[in-house]
Model the fold of this input.
Amino acid sequence: QVQLVESGGGLVQAGGSLRLSCKASGSIFSINAMAWYRQAPGKQRELVAATTSGGSTNYADSVKGRFTISRDNAKNTVTLQMISLKPEDTAVYYCHADLRGRYTVHTYYWGQGTQVTVSS
Done:
């Protein structure tokens, strides 16, 4: 019943910025962790950035210093602010959530993905 919906993807020139947003809706007790993954054509899906219930964050080396992940628990939303975008950032970006239910500790969900294309 839980759904994750991503938004904010699009076309941008190299050096530009985009802000991705993922909102979780449905029966949600609390958020354990949320993350962004991406998958470029012909490549495996990779972790881009993650934030945990403890407040820690981690980033792929390729995006450190350029991307910032943040979470708004009141809105069940996670955002990814991306600056200084490069053509190699082009990929489908997926939201991932680790949610706690009333009687479950961990349940995992994926969004449908949003396309980010960075032109050269």
